């Protein structure tokens, strides 16, 4: 009887934990790695900052500082309104349990977001959809354009960026971050 040969196990290359995963890299760029010393241990730590869409547009001169501030303000209100972490209803109700009650701060933020969306033309408008998904839910412009778009149809990315710029301009006027000028 012939002796059985032992097959050599193929080793998989180990993943470098200092680098962002391939999944994370496909969802947006990163700045160059910055090496700093950890204040507690003194060891070297590498920080990579995720690239912000509004920050990139401001850096490239696509939007003004007022538009950037309007986008950040809408994002902050959206988070405060808890639209990004909508809860679901419990399937099993506990007797004597209390319902989640919204705070006054959350209700006020929801009113401000609703008013801003009304100024943009409502949820179903191009600007309203762009504000909700790109500014509020922080999806990329390209992802919003391809998946959601306007009216359920995909939008070319260049037009989507133009929609975002127009949305930010209207929000900057609504929040009073730019002076209103009279039309001739």
Structure, explained:
This protein has a domain at 53-85 and 104-174. Helices cover 43% and strands 4% of the residues. The protein has a two-stranded antiparallel ribbon with strand order 1-2. The protein is mainly alpha-helical and 184 residues long. A hairpin with a 6-residue loop joins strand 1 (34-37) and strand 2. It has seven helices and two strands.
Question: Could you give the count of β-strands?
Answer: 2
- Biggest β-sheet strands, sense, barrel: 2 strands, antiparallel
Stretches where pLDDT is under 50 for at least 5 consecutive residues are none
Spatial shape: extended
| C-alpha termini separation | 100 Å
List keywords for this structure.
184 residues; two-stranded antiparallel ribbon; mainly alpha; 43% helix; extended; single chain
Structure described in brief:
This protein has seven helices and two strands.
List the helices and strands and how they pair.
Blueprint (H helix, E strand, L loop, with lengths): L21 H4 L8 E4 L6 E4 L5 H7 L5 H16 L23 H16 L6 H11 L4 H8 L8 H18 L10
Antiparallel strand pairs: 1-2
Helix pairs in contact: 2-3, 3-4, 3-5, 3-7, 5-7, 6-7
């Amino acid at each position: 009887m012939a002796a059985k040969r032992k097959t050599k196990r193929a080793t998989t290359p180990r993943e470098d934990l200092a680098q962002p995963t391939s999944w994370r890299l496909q969802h947006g760029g990163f700045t160059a790695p910055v090496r700093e010393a950890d204040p507690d241990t003194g060891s070297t730590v590498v920080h990579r900052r995720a690239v912000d869409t509004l920050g990139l547009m401001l850096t490239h001169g696509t939007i003004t500082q007022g538009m950037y501030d309007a986008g950040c303000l809408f994002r902050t209100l959206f988070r405060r309104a808890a639209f990004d972490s909508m809860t679901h209803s419990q399937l099993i109700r506990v007797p004597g349990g209390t319902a989640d009650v919204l705070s006054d701060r959350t209700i006020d933020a929801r009113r401000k977001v609703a008013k801003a969306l009304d100024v943009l033309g409502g949820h179903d408008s191009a600007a309203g959809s762009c504000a909700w998904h790109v500014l509020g839910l922080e999806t990329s412009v390209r992802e919003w354009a391809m998946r959601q778009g306007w009216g359920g149809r995909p939008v070319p990315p260049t037009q989507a960026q133009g929609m975002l710029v127009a949305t930010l301009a209207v929000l900057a006027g609504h929040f009073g971050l730019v002076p209103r000028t009279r039309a001739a």
